[in-house]
């Protein structure tokens, strides 16, 4: 497998592990990038954009990164908070009056950011066409009853969080979250990341390849672990090949359908690793970045401590925030080491924990970092 891009000699073991992801762990097309002290030390890409192995993965190839997108949506809210236009301790109703109904009157903005708002699902069934209609979705969410008292429990808002945060951004700025992200974050940083992709970029988007089907035992285990079996999640079947469609790509689903590569994910999130500045652009204050580490609770079913928009390391002396997407994409921001790294791929996998493709790259990165002293 031809590995393309740059890799500082200090991180040669990361490059070798990246290559093993193709030879031993069935990667098809993938990228890995890292910055240290604000500069790229790794920017690798390899493989193919399609499952047939006929279209090479190029330097400018982008792909759906699933829930890694959530960190981009969180940054939009953090930027507004840093400017004094948004307060995480204010009631949602102050920005979105229609939301104050059916038991949601006391919901705070921080409940959106920490997956404690009580709307992990839509409460009613949506079609794909309805999911792609922002106004329709936000009206559905505004009329729902929360599944628990907001702020008292954490459960992953896998799709709903992006609409909830995004509507706050829209009410404050008059722009959709995708437009705000493009104008205020991606463009200043020259980051090739999109929440709602314009058709001119379609030719360079990699095909999302689905994971193997779950076993019957795994499906039954997941169903048995569902704490709200009587509630309607309502998310339509949006998985490949639907997620390779023009409708999915062009929609703004800020919790799940951002498109980029490891280079662009890192280019944006290097902001957080370096106190709000990256590549000569100042977008956040250090205090604004620090907001991320205000713990909101533990997400049940994931055993992850969550801050404002990101998963966070539990120990207060370690400032590490992170998230990942379905199938294996990852972003990690290490404030202590002023490091940021991301893995992005097109072949999805069910294994996203220890030993996964992204996890082994993380391990090698830290081994190299420690060796470099």
Written description of the protein model:
The longest helix is centred in the C-terminal third of the chain and has 16 residues, at 357-372. A hairpin with a 2-residue loop joins β7 and β8 (281-282). The chain starts with a strand and ends with a helix. The protein has helices at residues 12-24, 69-82, 109-113, 128-131, 134-143, 160-173, 177-189, 216-224, 246-250, 262-273, 286-290, 357-372; strands spanning 3-7, 29-36, 39-47, 63-64, 194-195, 258-260, 277-278, 281-282, 297-299, 304-306, 311-312, 320-324, 330-334, 339-345. The chain has a seven-stranded antiparallel beta sheet, with helices on both faces. The chain has a three-stranded antiparallel beta sheet with strand order 4-6-5. Strands 7-8 form a two-stranded antiparallel ribbon. α2 runs parallel beside α6 (160-173), α2 (69-82) packs across α7 and α5 packs across α6. By secondary structure, the protein is an alpha+beta fold. It has one domain (3-372): Beta-lactamase.
């Amino acid at each position: 497998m031809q590995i393309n891009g740059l890799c500082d000699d200090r991180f040669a073991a990361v490059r070798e592990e990246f290559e093993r992801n193709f030879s031993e762990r069935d990667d098809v097309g993938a990228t890995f990038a890292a910055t240290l002290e604000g500069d790229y030390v790794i920017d690798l890409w390899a493989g193919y954009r399609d499952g047939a192995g006929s279209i090479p993965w190029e330097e400018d190839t982008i792909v759906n990164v699933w829930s890694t997108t959530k960190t981009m949506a969180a940054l939009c809210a953090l930027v507004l908070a840093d400017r004094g236009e948004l307060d995480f301790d204010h009631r949602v109703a102050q920005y979105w009056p229609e939301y104050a109904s059916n038991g949601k009157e006391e919901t705070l903005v921080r409940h959106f950011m920490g997956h404690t708002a009580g709307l992990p699902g839509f409460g009613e069934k949506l079609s794909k066409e309805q999911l792609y209609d922002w106004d329709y979705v936000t009206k559905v969410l505004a009329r729902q009853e929360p599944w628990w008292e907001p702020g008292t429990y954490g459960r992953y808002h896998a799709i709903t969080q992006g609409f909830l945060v995004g509507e706050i951004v829209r009410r404050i700025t008059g722009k959709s979250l995708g437009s705000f992200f493009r104008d205020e974050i991606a463009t200043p940083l020259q980051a090739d990341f999109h929440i709602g992709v314009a058709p001119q970029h379609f030719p360079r988007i990699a095909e999302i390849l689905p994971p193997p089907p779950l076993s019957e035992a795994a499906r039954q285990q997941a169903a048995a672990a569902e704490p709200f079996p009587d509630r309607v999640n309502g998310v339509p079947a949006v998985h490949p090949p639907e997620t390779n469609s023009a409708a999915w790509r062009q929609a703004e689903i800020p919790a799940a359908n951002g498109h980029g590569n490891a280079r662009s994910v890192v280019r944006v999130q290097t902001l957080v690793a370096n106190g709000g500045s990256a590549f000569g652009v100042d977008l956040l204050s250090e205090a604004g970045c620090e907001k991320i580490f205000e713990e909101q609770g533990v997400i049940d079913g994931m055993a992850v401590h969550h801050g404002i928009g990101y998963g966070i390391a539990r120990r207060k002396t370690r400032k590490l925030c992170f998230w990942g997407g379905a199938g294996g994409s990852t972003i990690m921001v290490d404030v202590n080491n002023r490091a940021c790294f991301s893995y992005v791929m097109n072949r999805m996998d069910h294994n996203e924990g220890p030993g996964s493709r992204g996890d082994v790259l993380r391990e090698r990165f830290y081994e190299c970092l420690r060796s470099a002293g």
